[in-house]
Amino acid sequence: MTFAGAHTALVTPFRDGQFDTEAFRQLIEEQIAGGISGIIPVGTTGESPTLDHDEHLQVIEVAIHTAKKRCLVIAGTGSNSTSEAISLTQAAEKAGADAALLVAPYYNKPSQEGLYRHFKAIAEAVRIPIVLYSIPGRCGIEIGVETTARLAKDFKNIVAIKEAGGSVERVNQLRNALPVEFEVLSGDDSLTIPFMSVGAVGVISVASNIIPAEVSRMVRHYLAGESSKALEIHQKYYPLFKDLFIEPNPVPAKFVLERLGKMTSEVRLPLCDMTSASVQRLTETLSRIGL
User: Could you give all domains of the chain from N- to C-terminal order, each with its CATH number?
Assistant: First the structure.
């Protein structure tokens, strides 16, 4: 299995406080029609911290049943509790997920040895491929390069990392430390092309909720050696890539999806609606890029 390509970190649609399964299914269909290589239900963009255990598994199961093997389903099953992460990952494996995305434990800030033991316990409890997820801005820690290399060496099912630390230099370090078959994915839309220029093989994208065909095409062009075509797409949509983070993700993305008639913009507290200034800025950006 390869994770080369564009993958969508799916939003979780809500209507009147409940999971909107119909909007979610339609969103997935649009991703597949747009050529997306994979979908990630219940990651950060899917508001995983505010979904209870049953909802978490329901979202994963709906994604698997809707995708019907037409793209990869990489289930978000991370937690700052190792036992909970194991339970969620085992449930995702049983439901038929192709792989699992495991974020670094947040808030409790384990040491690198603690991180190693956390991911070791999960890897030993399942057989599906594991994609590590390093995002120090949210977790307060990063999965160290040496820790990543150690995990890749010791566990055959730890096969990739979503890198969201914002540093091209760290991608260089990862590529230098890891075997060629271990894949690196960008965790930031605006850094996809810079990361791919030093060895990443694709992106786990927020923007592709909105423009799946364009993000997918950008990555395919770059993988095919057509860097100028990829850069043209990157430059056109760069303002959107940046403005989807003017307020906490996925609030801006859901605002755009509501404007496009795809779902409500509902998020769960403690997330809330955007400010009027952010609404104006994002609306102007959408107009500028033709959305």
Answer: 5-226 (3.20.20.70)
